[in-house]
Design a protein that fits this description.
This protein has helices spanning about 5-10, 35-40, 50-55, 65-80, 110-125, 135-145, 160-165, 175-185, 190-195, 200-205, 210-215, 245-270, 300-310, and strands spanning about 20-25, 30-35, 60-65, 90, 95-100, 130-135, 150-155, 235-245, 270-280, 285-295, 320-330, 340-345. It is of the alpha+beta class and about 350 residues long. It has 4 domains: about 5-65, MutS, DNA mismatch repair protein, domain I (3-Layer(aba) Sandwich); about 70-155, Alpha-Beta Plaits (2-Layer Sandwich), CATH 3.30.70; about 165-210, 5' to 3' exonuclease, C-terminal subdomain (DNA polymerase, domain 1); about 235-345, DNA polymerase, Y-family, little finger domain (Dna Ligase, domain 1, 2-Layer Sandwich). The strands form 4 sheets. Strands 8-11-9-10-12 form a 5-stranded antiparallel β-sheet. It is found in: Cytoplasm. It comes from Sphingomonas turrisvirgatae.
Length: about 350
């Protein structure tokens, strides 16, 4: 989807259309969750501190996120996908891989299939989508950004390896800022630079990731679209406007995050046995505390109570807390009543 959260907000509020919009919370400690294309023209991007975003664009409008609405629109989009193929691998609320080799509509080409899906998304949700089309997931992912917004691009088998050569490695899915910086120090800035390296060189410098880098530099990715990939955890976190030491304020933040996670679990019928609370202090030091039950935690009240008990193990805080988060993991789709929770060392 194109600037998904921001596009939904602009769709639902005509006043926001054509204006630079950031989904998130403004203020000294806020962070941009998503930015409209009008905001991106000023260099506003997701994960950018709100203060920095406002310096770059004084007219930026902050809109608080409405994740229940985004999940609802995402469900509409995935229902459209399901009309074409059962091989759907979601990456996030607004992105997925689809294998349309044998599609349910009998459409002859992936290009025509993507075009029809995008048209239906626009008609049924009122927002635009872009598509990348190729013979493997890595190239399709790269191609999906090539004609944004509201476009599509295909990387055919006869152009794949050559097309990768000229792209900067910073655009490669799976190569983050730290790895990209390391590659730059080694003289690797493009796909062509990466392709020029031997397996031995890549193993010596990147260890277990070497084979992956060797393959993608040549347009090779044999991973199938996996519709059964299981979610391992669900979490939510918040950064406070100021560093907190008051237990009541800290716990209020923890409870909001616990409620977010409980709602996600209930929506999907997925309940986990392990509850983890994270706290980040003013000096950016991060601490986690976990507790695991013999059976999944299904009751939101149990999740709230456990989360508060875990954060209380950090009292009194040695310094102000700037961020808290709650995560549930060790999912099981079916469970009976939860047993008492068992302590684990954090």
């Amino acid at each position: 989807m194109d600037a998904f959260f921001a596009s939904v907000e602009q769709r639902d509020d005509p006043v926001l259309r054509g204006r630079p919009v950031a989904v998130g919370y403004g203020g000294r400690r806020g962070v941009v969750a998503a930015a409209s294309y009008e905001a991106r023209a000023f260099g506003v991007r997701s994960a950018l501190p709100s203060v920095t975003a406002l310096r770059r664009c004084a007219e930026l409008v902050f809109v608080p996120p409405r994740f229940d609405v985004y999940r609802s629109v995402s469900a509409q989009i995935h229902a459209i996908f399901a009309d074409y193929t059962e091989l759907i691998q979601p990456l996030s609320l607004d992105e997925a891989y689809l294998d349309v080799t044998d599609n349910r509509r009998g459409i002859a080409t992936a290009w025509a299939t993507a075009k029809e899906i995008r048209a239906r998304i626009l008609e049924e949700t009122g927002i635009t989508a872009s598509a990348g089309i190729s013979y493997n997931k890595f190239l399709a992912k790269l191609a999906s950004d090539h004609r944004k917004p509201n476009g599509q691009f295909a990387v055919t088998p006869d152009m794949g390896a050559a097309w990768v050569e000229d792209l900067p490695v910073t655009k490669f899915h799976g190569i983050g800022p730290v790895t990209a910086a390391k590659m730059k120090r080694l003289g690797i800035e493009t796909g062509g630079d990466l392709r020029a390296q031997s397996r031995e060189f890549l193993v010596a410098n990147f260890g277990s990731s070497a084979e992956w880098y060797f393959g993608i530099a040549r347009g090779i990715d044999d991973r199938p679209v996996n519709p059964n990939r299981e979610r391992k955890s669900s979490g939510s976190e918040t950064t406070f406007e100021r560093d907190l030491v008051d237990p009541a304020e800290i716990e209020a933040g923890v409870l909001r995050m616990a409620d977010d996670v409980a709602a996600w679990c209930a929506d999907r019928g997925m309940f986990g046995r392990t509850v983890t609370v994270k706290a980040k202090f003013a000096d950016f030091r991060q601490v986690t505390r976990s507790r695991t039950a013999a059976r999944p935690v299904r009751d939101p009240g149990d999740l709230r109570r456990t989360s508060v008990e875990l954060i209380r193990t950090l009292y009194p805080p040695t310094m102000g807390i700037r961020l808290v988060g709650v995560t549930v993991s060790n999912f099981e789709r079916e469970a009976s009543e939860p047993l008492p929770l068992l302590d684990l060392k954090g």
